[in-house]
Design a protein that fits this description.
CATH superfamily of the largest domain: q2cbj1_9rhob like domain
Cofactor: L-ascorbate
Number of strands: 15
Pfam families: 2OG-FeII_Oxy_3 (PF13640)
InterPro entries: P4HA-like, Pro_4_hyd_alph, Pro_4_hyd_alph_FE2OG_OXY
GO molecular function: iron ion binding; L-ascorbic acid binding; procollagen-proline 4-dioxygenase activity
Oligomer: single chain
Radius of gyration: 18 Å
Largest sheet: 8 strands, antiparallel
Number of domains: 2
Protein name: Prolyl 4-hydroxylase alpha subunit domain-containing protein
Strand content: 15-25%
Structural class: alpha+beta
Strand order of the largest sheet: 1-2-13-10-15-8-7-3
């Protein structure tokens, strides 16, 4: 029952945020009211979590992903999956999701992607994509939308988290692999005005989900959201909180199974420059694998 309550609260958060243009009048006062509501909901979620340790379990490594399912059952019904959520930032809205994917799902996605990795590209204004290894050095592949029952269920989970949006608004899932010295320099996931917007409109939200991490670094850093000890030290199990943390933006540890979710646009539906982020190198002899999930404003056609 408590799990159902948590899902309802998360749905309320995302639905309110998605509807903020019409219900908040786009004023600072209204935004503050909305932020206060998010905070209250966050506290409620934490109370549910703290009062039912059998339902919500904190997990820091792939071995600690506490729930799994038989993948052969996905063809008949998607599992009612449980996860833990924390609001990390109010503006932009960043939500951290623990145990969003199971170890079986992770293993399946990696095995599916492994034969098809190619050098990663970057988007150009004219809609084309090119190699630029001075800016982005990694390898990627896309998974066919609803290509298997397992992928379809995972896509539905991403859609359900966002208030049961149409899964067709989600781009094909992108698996990305970083080896020891590979990186993605600071960038935005949203597009400038250009032909990339012709199909589905703007990228409204992003999930970055860690699938595998064998590294000492490899964090995801939000450059413009500076670490503040008073605000962020309670998140040190998922953030880097070292002696130089305040010189950096928020740096998320690469913990398999966990996901970072954020909005790429602000309360006025403008591209949010506070979402500038980077994929840092894993470290010598290390590597990591992640899953990019981007949601468009409307249906995205393959």
């Amino acid at each position: 029952m408590r799990y159902i309550h948590i899902l309802i609260v998360v749905g309320v958060i995302l639905n309110l945020y998605q509807c903020r243009y019409s219900i908040l009048q786009l004023s600072d006062t209204s935004l503050n009211i909305f932020i206060g509501l998010l905070t209250d909901l966050h506290h409620y979620i934490q109370q549910l979590i703290n009062s039912s340790s059998k339902v919500i379990v904190t997990c820091n490594t792939a071995n600690n992903i506490y729930h799994n399912y038989n993948l052969s059952e996905y063809e008949n019904k998607c599992p009612e999956h449980r996860y833990d959520v924390q609001i990390i930032s109010r503006r932009p809205l960043i939500i951290y999701i623990e145990n969003f994917l199971t170890s079986n799902e992770i293993q399946y996605l990696i095995q599916l992607a492994n034969p098809f990795f190619e050098n990663s590209t970057v988007a150009n204004y004219d809609g084309s994509r090119t190699l630029d290894e001075s800016f982005r050095l990694s390898s990627t592949t896309y998974l066919q939308r609803a290509g298997t029952p397992i992928i379809k269920c995972i896509e539905k989970r991403f859609a359900k988290f966002q208030g049961n949006i149409n899964p067709l608004q989600i781009e094909p899932l992108q698996v990305v692999k970083y080896q020891s010295n590979q990186f993605f320099h600071p960038h935005f996931d949203w597009f400038y005005n250009g032909s990339h917007l012709d199909n589905g409109g703007q990228r409204i939200t992003t999930f970055f989900t860690y699938l595998f991490a064998n590294c000492t670094n490899g964090e995801t850093e939000f450059i413009e959201i500076k670490y503040n000890q008073t605000l962020h030290e309670r998140f040190c199990k998922i953030l880097i909180c070292d002696d130089v943390a305040e010189q950096y933006g928020l740096r998320f540890r690469p913990i398999p199974g966990n996901s970072i979710f954020w909005f790429n646009v602000d309360e006025n539906n403008n591209n949010d420059e506070l979402t500038l982020h980077a994929g840092r190198p894993p470290s010598e002899n290390g590597f990591k694998i992640g899953l990019n999930t981007w949601t468009r404003h409307s249906i995205f056609h393959n």
